[in-house]
Each structure stands twice: as C-alpha cells, then as structure tokens.
Amino acid sequence: LIVAFVEFFIYIKKGGIYEQKTIYAMTFRTIFTILMAYISIKFYKKIKKMKQIPLILALSVCSVFYSCNNTAPSENNSSQITVNHSEEQNQEEAIILDNGKKWKVNDNMLPYILDAEKIFIAYLDNHDVDFKKLAKDLENKNDSLTSNCTMEGQAHDELHKWLLPHLELTEKLSSAESENEAQNQIKELKLSFETFHKYFE
C-alpha cells in the first residue's frame, strides 16, 4: 500500500489526472491496515501462550476484508463517482479564458487532441455506425494525451476542466448498448470538441 501510495503521488506530480476522493480512500485504507496490523501484533503477544493462532489469522483477514470493502469502491461505483465528479465540475468550475484569449496547449498534448478530433470528424463524414471502434480509437488518443500531460499552472487546470468531462463522454460511448444511446454521446462529444476550440488553441 505504501509503495502504491508513493507511486500515485509521483503520478500526480507529473500532472496525472486524479480525484480527491481517491487520495482520501488510499489514506484511510493505509492507516486502517497499519492500525489493524498493530492491534493484531499486540493481541498476538498477549495470547501467544494460549496458542490461539487461528484467531489471529481470522482477525488479520477480517481487517483486510473490512479495509477493502469500506475504502475501495467497486468498478461500477468508481465509475459512478467519476461521473458525478465530472457533473459537479461542469456545474461548479466553468472554463475561463486567459484574459480574453485562448489558452495555449503545448506541443506534447495538442497533437493527440487534434488527432482524436480528426478521427471523430471522419466517423461523422463517413456516416459510420461502428461506435465501439470510434470509442476505442478515441480512448487510445486519450491515453496518449494523459500520459503526455506536461502542462503546468492555470493553463493546465483550465484544460483539465475540459478534459475530465471529455474522457467521461468517451467512456460512456464505449459502454453504450445501442446505436441510439451512442448517438447521444456522439452529440455530446461534438459539443465537447467545439468547447475545446472555444477556449484552447
């Protein structure tokens, strides 16, 4: 857990995308696990002479089980938390211009956004219906984009206000179960790319 925590903070320092709830959850899980391990050791010393090893093992297993179930959300819950976070962000954090001008996206990141937009436009122009492939292609560009996130300062913060909801739209497209559902996400993605060009260049 400690190693994972350190690697996670290194990832954040490099500009990686994260949620504040993730930090809270990892902190709680680490502290809780250490506390339960300490209690188990103290308890073990007291009953060592009684040779109740199975009880110690049971306590350890229960502590890990409790920690996981109370701090690590399921895949569905994690997705729901991220979606809610993006919706709250849209409501509370509007993107602003750089003193009336568009923000400059650096050369490490801009190509991936423009490439994704080209893929999206080609899908529309060709009247394609394979939305699963579109979602996969966009996700590949998103992965490259986030792994090359090197912007800093307010420009970085403003870009992430756009990027997080955009990533969620791509995930929703990928999980769409019908063409009608996919079309709703495609409309939202179109608006998302338009929003990007309104605030960034």
Describe the structure.
The protein is built from eight helices and no strands. The radius of gyration is 22 Å and the shape is elongated. It starts with a helix and ends with a helix. The protein is mainly alpha-helical.
Outline of the structure:
By secondary structure, this protein is mainly alpha-helical.
Specify the number of helices. 8
- Termini separation: 40 Å
Mean pLDDT: 79
**Uncertain runs:** 70-92
The description of the largest β-sheet is:
none
Specify the helix fraction band.
over 70%
Query: Strand tally, please?
Result: 0
Note the overall shape.
elongated
**Could you spell the SSE succession in H and E letters?**
HHHHHHHH
Question: Whole-number radius of gyration?
Answer: 22 Å
What is the oligomeric state here?
Answer: single chain
Indicate the structural class: mainly alpha
Strand percent estimate: under 5%
SSE layout and pairing:
Elements: H1 2-13, H2 20-47, H3 53-71, H4 75-92, H5 110-125, H6 131-147, H7 153-175, H8 179-199
Helix pairs in contact: 2-3, 4-7, 5-6, 6-7, 7-8
Q: Which tags fit this structure?
A:
elongated, 201 residues
